[in-house]
Amino acid sequence: MAALSKSFVLFLLELRNSVKALAIAFAATTLLLFFLSSPLLDALQEHLGGNLYFFSVAGPFLAHVKMAFFGALYLLMPLCMYVLWKAIGKPFGVTGQKLFWFVFATCLLFYSGTLFCYTVTLPYGIKFLLSFQSKELQAVISINQFVNFVTLFILAFGAIFELPVFMVFSSQVGIISRKTYEKNRRYAVLVIAILAAVLTPTPDVFNMALMGVPLYLLYESGILLIRILRLDAPKNVG
Domain of 101? Predict the structure, then answer.
């Protein structure tokens, strides 16, 4: 317990040292992307195939600010992951080449997840939801609600696709072994099903499977990576 408390303190100290530089980078990138937010919004709106509306004077402005912030987060994800893994890994000796590979793998999976969501899951989800329209019931979609829905959905996919990296890390530092992951497959399936039901925009089985199946494959790939990297032996943290 004392070792974990010490690791947590080191994590906070390392994170504090990098937050200022990260905040400056976010502010500068967000400001730059604000002037390029219209093409970004147009790219997202292509999936909608219709017009967006606003119901307040500040609505369009706020939507463009959100798009700029989302774009900044997307572009600066490698920097965010470097700061995060540097803070997490320092107490456990994850530095140098190990740090590079953790950052690289996390970013690769994040961008793969967001791309999969944008090109596959999101179009099907929006099409399904809008299929309930009729002559008497027409969609009038707020630009702010649309931006919130799309950006959060894409980021959620990017986040959950990083599962194998954190599985490998937890095994490497001795928190959770490969055998534990293998024994709890049925619980993993349950959690994945719940996440798919909550995060997907539609309740139908097909769209839930578009998230659930890749996530379970990522879970299995995490177990396989732990085996390949020979991280099975438990380790004492600290």
Answer: 2-228
Domain presence at residue 237 = no
Q: Which of 5-9, 18-22, 61-65, 225-229 has the lowest mean pLDDT?
A: 5-9
pTM of this structure: 0.82
Is residue 89 a part of any domain in this protein? yes
**Degrees (nearest 5) of the Cα angle 76, 45, 201?**
80
pLDDT of residue 238: 41
Region label for 174, one of left (φ > 0), alpha (ψ between -120 and 50) or beta (otherwise): left
Condensed to tens digits (0 to 9), the pLDDT of residues 182-217 reads 999 999 999 988 888 877 766 667 777 878 888 999
Where does 76-184 have alpha helices with state H?
Answer: 77-89, 96-116, 122-130, 143-160, 163-172, 178-183
Tally the domains of the chain.
Answer: 1
